[in-house]
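README, section 4: Worked example with a bound small molecule

Sections 1 through 3 covered apo chains. Here we extend the same pipeline to holo records, where the ligand is supplied as SMILES alongside the sequence. The molecule in this example is nicotinamide-adenine-dinucleotide. Nothing else about the input changes; the structure line simply encodes the ligand pose together with the chain.
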Amino acid sequence: MRIAGCVAVITGAARGIGLALAQSLAGAGAKVVLSDVLAPELQAAVTSLRAQGGAVAARLADVTRDEDVSALMDFAIETFGALNVVVANAGVARDALLLRRDATTGRIEPALSTEDFRAVTETNLVGPFITFREGARRMAEHGWPGVLVVLSSINKAGQPGQLSYGSTKAAVALWPKILAGEFHWSGIRNIRVVGIAPGYTGTPALAALEHSTLEPVLKDVPLGRLVALDELSATLAFVIENEAVHGTTLEISGGATFGPWQRSK
Ligand SMILES: NC(=O)c1ccc[n+]([C@@H]2O[C@H](COP(=O)([O-])OP(=O)(O)OC[C@H]3O[C@@H](n4cnc5c(N)ncnc54)[C@H](O)[C@@H]3O)[C@@H](O)[C@H]2O)c1
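The generated complex, written as structure tokens:
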């Protein structure tokens, strides 16, 4: 599928990876709807991309809400006339260990709350589910060539402290296989499904960390540096343009391996 002229919706696009993906697609001639829950940041992003000549529009939507996401997809179609690329990028992390030992009493207590576990699941799992369903049904209905893309993460090894986040990212990494199979079985030929699983990425938030904070993290990364935003944008472009890429999750991680046990070896 050609990027120029295609219509893309990206959730969580007010900053970070989502914004970088939106910028590169718009730069390559796609029409892009950026969506987020952060109103001022979203408006600033769209203003900046328009100033660079991008055909872009903004729509507030909370990915955990059916009605928001449904209205987002309708907005993209009303604004740009089709729907070809849906990127379920919005995500959160609330990392915590399962248990902690109270320093005073020595007793073992819960550390990760049910509320935080549910919040991460709601945004990272229910959110992409609604995003995919609402995008896919419109693509299937109209027969537009399309690709659904979900942002996973390093997903084959568990990182202590990421029981909630890691659970959601491992789950979505499997979705391309499940949905490629469903679409094949049900005769939907126009929609591909792909996961992109970045490693530690140089978003402004991560790149701004002190060297002393980043250094131990990068010890787990054979590449020796953060994944660049450009490298993720190039991956999304490859996914859109290469129609043989379907039913798979691509790891763009610099070879990252997880876990303090890796370091202690
Ligand atoms: N940065 C990394 O190193 C890294 C690595 C692997 C995977 N990822 C994944 O990539 C995606 C983007 O990460 P990022 O680093 O750019 O994060 P980020 O926090 O900078 O951006 C995420 C965006 O999602 C939005 N968002 C959060 N909850 C939302 C909701 N309910 N509805 C709509 N928007 C919502 C936020 O407002 C924010 O703008 C996430 O899914 C993340 O898990 C990031």
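What to look for in the output: The domain at 7-263 is CATH 3.40.50.720 (Rossmann fold). The mean pLDDT is 95.

Section 5 describes how to batch many such records.
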